[in-house]
Design brief:
- The complex is a heterodimer of chains A (427) and B (330).
- With 427 residues, chain A is α/β, with parallel strands linked by helices.
- In chain A, α12 links the parallel β13 and β14.
- In chain A, α2 packs antiparallel against α3 and α11 crosses α14.
- Chain A starts with a strand and ends in an 8-residue tail after the last helix.
- Chain B has 330 residues and is an all-alpha fold.
- Among the domains of chain B are: 64 residues; 58 residues, no CATH class.
- The longest helix of chain B has 77 residues.
């Protein structure tokens, strides 16, 4: 079996959620099939500037083909178009222009996908909202499997994504909340889909003391792992934590691992150690009392899964349906929606507290049951088998004509997403 | 923070979250969601903007002294402005010579630019005027916010003082409670007392009836006495075994502070056994123990009541440690 994985960026040094997810899946599936990755030369997700040379290379034993991005993102133009399609009545042409503006626009990649469509059994497209997934899925309709990695953001309410969700052969969802969102906006219940998620490269052994020694950490602490950014809810986390530190002098410290995009406030109990190696990351996680996830927009928190894999409880932002649902299903942490809840939950989840260890243990069991690699691999392979057996191809929805595409009659995308019921899925 | 009730190895996150919210509700009274907090914040802001809300003379003064700046000079520049003149024929000649002028320079972009500039000037003036109109509102808002913050600051300060006062009172009460616990001891009921109880109860009821009339009698006897002193005597009355007459020469405070409830019931020999010095010490101790705002009569009432209650029950009595002087004489 030959599988092509199409993703916006790819590389061992890229730690973004969907890209890392794609790399893990590629490396795991390569044990069962021939896997080739088709991607762009971009490294930075904000500019999509060509930074890698185009052509072929091998990353961790996987063959990777890179194609140049035709033009980097113009942030002003993208912002203007986003405001139009998210908040005002617009046309399908406006949405397509938004997609081009968002990038990474790589017609060469789409041309290549069209050319090699017969060489592969399936094309796995990661991240539904990007140019490569929309155009690529249209180019290889009968072989496209989508891993949407969709969050509850207005982009999912764009009209153009509806046909894509309905026309692909199958969808590999990250969570039940994501599946319900996509069902809600596109009505694609008939398309085969399975909630898979992703595993992680959990080390056999961690050394918490090494992390403590390396970074001179003496007090118990909570850890945040990820980009320190507005989008990840870090400002609210800082505010809550500084408040908490003032109220509970003997409480936990907070250590931040990851690249800081926004300034980190100066506080004796708040420390950002910057981007660290995987080894340090897992050692830090093992040394921490708990993991904090303040993000409001997540399709699946891999770092939460990693925390559970190490038996650590998580404290997540309750405003994020996916995180909340995941935590409630796993019984592996607590949620907060206000400072009071944050402070109480921090207290409860301390290692010396009453329930932190129990929740961590339950999280570990949840991880083993649902997110261990053998389970994930089996779900992918079962889906491939199912699609091979079922060769029936659904009729393709007709694409609107030139005039119809330019008629500004589509409602704001945000309105569409807001109309879909929210909340965690508890099953 | 109190600990959670973890009854088994398996923990239900939903249940824990419910417990957390319940505790927060207990602490804060109401568990507001973020949306509700935002709503409350909006309401508060509306109050500030409300003209019936907080006001100050400064705002009025600001409004009085505010002067509206005059409109800056501007001009109207249309396509034909450069040819305008009061003399009609000259305008016609200029227009006729316009092609020749255009051989040397093109006046159209200049005219267009000046036209745009005139519109820009006008636009900016309008915006500036709008801004000026908004200034008092901002001023008022900031001023009222400052007032409110100051008021809240004072309130917080007062609250802190009250909390300190309450906590010191609690400490005092706890210490007192502990001291009392150490001196109370269990004592077997005496059969003789039990036999006497019905008699003493009926006698006490008679006393109570007599006591209801006593203040009036006292008032009739000493019309110059202050009314507030009578309740003090009444307060001591339930434990009085025989009617007490207040001598005219005695001050009421002394009469209230030194009722003779227990002394009437207690044998005089008991007191006679004690040395005078010890009695003096006891009195001093009593005075020391008095709390601010509590007079001797109140203290006697509480201690006498306790003694009497002990008498009724026949189960408890206090040793003479000075904790409850009323019991010493029993």
């Amino acid at each position: 079996m030959k599988i092509a994985i199409v993703v916006q960026r790819y590389g061992s040094e890229i730690n973004g959620g969907a890209e890392l997810h794609a790399r893990y899946v590629a490396e795991r599936l390569s044990r069962h099939a021939t896997v080739e990755v088709l991607t762009t030369c971009a490294k930075d997700y904000l500019t999509w500037k060509n930074e890698w040379p185009s052509g072929e290379e091998t990353v961790n034993g996987i063959r990777v083909r890179r194609f140049p991005v035709s033009c980097p993102r113009n942030t002003d133009d993208f912002g203007r178009r986003s405001a139009l399609v998210f908040d005002r009545q617009h046309s399908l042409a406006d949405e397509l222009a938004w997609l081009d503006s968002e990038g990474p626009k790589s017609p060469a990649l789409i041309r290549h996908i069209d050319q090699v469509r017969d060489k592969f059994d399936f094309f796995l497209f990661f991240s539904a909202r990007y140019y490569h997934a929309w155009h690529g899925a249209r180019a290889v309709r009968g072989k496209a499997i989508l891993v949407p990695t969709a969050e509850r953001d207005p982009a999912m309410g764009l009209h153009m994504f509806g046909p894509m969700f309905r026309d692909v052969r199958a969808l590999m969802y990250n969570s039940f909340e994501e599946r319900d969102l996509i069902h809600g906006v596109s009505g694609n219940q008939a398309v085969p889909g399975v909630v898979v998620g992703v595993g992680s490269a959990i080390p056999e052994r961690t050394q918490p003391w090494r992390f403590r020694k390396k970074f001179n950490v003496k007090r118990p602490f909570a850890i945040y792992i990820g980009r320190i950014d507005d989008n990840k809810g870090c400002p609210a986390l800082f505010e809550h934590f500084i408040n908490y530190a003032a109220n509970y002098p003997r409480g936990l410290d907070l250590i931040l691992l990851g690249k800081a995009v926004i300034p980190v406030p100066s506080h004796p109990r708040l420390r950002a150690v910057g981007f660290v190696s995987e080894e340090d990351k897992f050692d830090g996680l093992a040394a921490a009392d708990l993991l904090v996830m303040p993000s409001q927009f997540e399709s699946l928190s891999m770092v939460a899964l990693e925390a559970w894999a190490l038996g650590k409880p998580v404290l997540v932002n309750g405003a994020c349906d996916v995180l909340r649902g995941q935590t409630l299903r796993a019984n592996g942490g607590l949620c907060y929606e206000s400072f009071d809840e944050f402070a109480e939950a921090m207290y409860c989840l301390e290692a010396s507290g009453p329930i932190g260890a129990i929740l961590g243990r339950q999280g570990r069991e949840f991880f083993k049951r649902h997110y261990a690699w053998p389970v994930i691999e089996k779900k992918y392979l079962d889906m491939f088998d199912r699609l091979k057996r079922d060769s029936s191809v659904r009729p393709v929805e007709p694409w609107p004509g030139w005039w119809a595409r330019r008629r500004r009659t589509l409602p704001p995308a945000r309105q569409i997403v807001d109309s879909v019921p929210a909340g965690p899925v508890l099953r | 923070m109190s600990d959670f009730q973890v009854k088994s190895d398996a923990v239900d996150v939903d249940a824990i979250m419910r417990q957390i919210r319940a505790r927060i509700r207990e602490k804060r009274g109401t568990d507001y969601t973020e949306a509700e907090v935002q709503e409350l914040a909006k309401v508060k802001l509306e109050q500030f903007l409300d003209p019936k809300g907080v006001r100050s003379d400064l705002v009025a003064q600001f409004r009085r002294t505010r002067t509206i700046s005059p409109a800056p000079p501007n001009y109207d520049f249309e396509d034909d402005t450069i040819y305008k003149t009061r003399r009609g024929p000259l305008r016609t000649i200029r227009r006729l010579l316009n092609p020749i002028l255009k051989l040397f320079l093109n006046p159209n972009p200049i005219a267009a630019a000046l036209h745009v500039q005139a519109r820009v000037n006008e636009e900016f003036h309008q915006r500036f005027r709008q801004r000026e109109d908004m200034d008092p509102l901002y001023y008022e808002l900031v001023h009222n916010l400052a007032l409110e913050v100051t008021r809240l600051g004072i309130e917080v300060h007062n609250m802190k003082m009250r909390v300190e006062s309450v906590s010191s009172r609690i400490d005092f009460d706890e210490r007192r409670g502990r001291a009392l616990e150490t001196v109370v001891q269990y004592k077997q009921a005496r059969p003789q007392q039990q036999q006497q109880r019905p008699q003493s109860q009926s006698q006490r009821q008679q006393d109570l009836l007599a006591q209801d009339q006593r203040p009036q009698e006292a008032r009739q006897q000493t019309p110059s006495m202050n009314a507030p002193t009578a309740p003090a005597a009444v307060a001591g009355a339930p434990v009085v075994a025989m009617p007490v007459t207040i001598p005219a020469g005695d001050s009421i405070g002394e009469a209230a502070a030194m009722p003779t409830p227990v002394s009437a019931a207690a044998p005089a020999a008991d007191r006679g056994d004690r040395h005078d010095g010890e009695g003096e010490r006891r009195r001093r101790r009593r005075r020391r123990r008095r709390r601010p705002g509590q007079n001797m009569g109140d203290q006697q009432f509480s201690s006498g009541g306790g003694a009497n209650a002990g008498d009724d029950a026949g189960d408890y009595s206090s040793t003479d440690t000075g904790a409850d002087s009323g019991n010493d004489e029993k």
